[in-house]
TrEMBL record:
Pfam families named among the record's database cross-references: ANTAR (PF03861), GAF_2 (PF13185)
Domain (ANTAR): residue spans on this chain: 177-238
Upper lineage: Bacteria, Bacillati, Actinomycetota, Actinomycetes, Micrococcales
GO MF annotation: an example: RNA binding
Designated name of the protein: ANTAR domain-containing protein
SMART domains in UniProt: ANTAR
UniProt-listed InterPro entries: ANTAR, CheY-like_superfamily, GAF, GAF-like_dom_sf, GAF_ANTAR, WH-like_DNA-bd_sf
Gene3D superfamilies reported in the protein's UniProt record: 3.30.450.40, Winged helix-like DNA-binding domain superfamily/Winged helix DNA-binding domain
PROSITE patterns given in the database record: ANTAR
Keyword set, alphabetical order: Kinase, Transcription, Transcription regulation, Transferase
Length: 254
């Protein structure tokens, strides 16, 4: 790569620092929301200077199945659909191997013939497929499409590799944060359920003048007889006594 191209690469990276991807994580967005932000940032970054701009989509692959989870427009979505129908695994095989695939001119390239025919009918002339590795549950690709032939030259490809590496790290964090958030929600739900059940047991103890084990046996028998969860039976008891539904995480005060 020439010195001019190297300068262009680092200039593009400075204008769109990796922190923009990490900023999206700080907003608390979920993984689909993060992918929407990622693909919009990708086309803004890598489509700069390309006449007509660039369309983009993010594909996630799991258990040999592929799905487009985010796209900038209908053109990108339709191109992805055509790529999924392609029997030639040039793109997906290279992506799974962690390499970048570039098609400079679809009119002259003999690979991916089904995709090529459909993409050309949509006016697409060049494409670039970048691997994304966010961990075992988030392996996929950032797919970029342009109406211009040779839209992704050496400088764009180098900048794209930087972007894909940054995006993969940010995606791994997004997946981890969502996993942690799900665990936190599960723990909170379990604690709220336990609190409601304990409150119901306390009411039964007071009404029947029995110990906790006996009160729990009464509650469990009612749950099994009605085929209703313990938490819901307890909530009904609390509501009947206090004339208001239990508030998650708040103790019953009679």
């Amino acid at each position: 790569m020439s010195d001019h191209d190297q300068t262009a690469v680092f200039s593009e990276r400075r204008r769109h620092p990796p922190s923009e991807l990490h900023d999206a994580l700080l907003t608390g967005t979920d993984v689909p929301g993060f992918l929407e932000h990622l693909v919009q940032l990708a086309v803004a970054t890598l489509g700069e200077g390309v006449p007509g701009g660039v369309s983009g989509a993010v594909t996630v692959m799991r258990d040999e199945r592929r799905a487009t989870l985010a796209s900038t427009d209908e053109l990108a979505r339709l191109c992805d659909e055509a790529l999924f129908a392609e029997r030639d695994n040039t793109a997906t095989g290279a992506i799974q191997a962690g390499t970048v695939v570039v098609i400079d001119d679809l009119a002259a390239d003999e690979r991916l013939r089904r995709f090529r025919t459909r993409a050309l009918s949509l006016g697409v002339r060049s494409a670039m497929f970048l691997p994304l590795d966010g961990g075992p549950d988030a392996v996929g690709a950032l797919n970029l499409y342009s109406l211009q032939a040779h839209a992704f030259g050496a400088a764009k490809q180098a900048a794209a590799r930087y972007f894909a590496a940054d995006a993969s790290r940010a995606l791994a964090l997004a997946v981890r944060h969502e996993h942690d958030r799900e665990i936190t929600e599960q723990l909170r739900a379990a604690l709220d359920s336990r609190t409601t059940i304990d409150q119901g047991i306390g009411i039964i103890m007071g009404q029947n003048r029995c110990d906790a084990d006996a009160a729990f046996a009464i509650l469990r028998a009612a749950s099994q007889h009605r085929n209703v969860k313990l938490r819901l039976v307890s909530a009904e008891i609390i509501t009947a006594v206090s004339n208001k539904a239990p508030v998650p995480g708040r103790s019953f005060n009679g």
